């Protein structure tokens, strides 16, 4: 089992909190780098949220 699989298993049911943590970490990086890498940070945040499932809107589930 990979490290990402273990993290996903731990975060199961807490996707919203994981998303908030990703946002907070990205904001901290943007602050420390004075926004120099903000596009890269935003891309990383989006990819992490997709991995953890925190980018899903509970009111608008994905279509099959």
From TrEMBL:
Protein name (Swiss-Prot/TrEMBL): Antitoxin
Region (Disordered): 1-64
Entries under InterPro entries matching the protein: Antitoxin_Rv0909/MT0933 (IPR028037)
Organism (species): Streptomyces argenteolus
């Amino acid at each position: 089992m990979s490290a990402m699989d273990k993290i996903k298993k731990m975060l199961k049911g807490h996707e919203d909190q994981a998303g908030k943590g990703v946002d907070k970490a990205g904001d901290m990086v943007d602050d420390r780098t004075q926004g120099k890498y903000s596009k890269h940070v935003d891309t990383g945040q989006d990819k992490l949220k997709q991995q953890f499932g925190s980018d899903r809107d509970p009111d608008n589930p994905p279509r099959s």
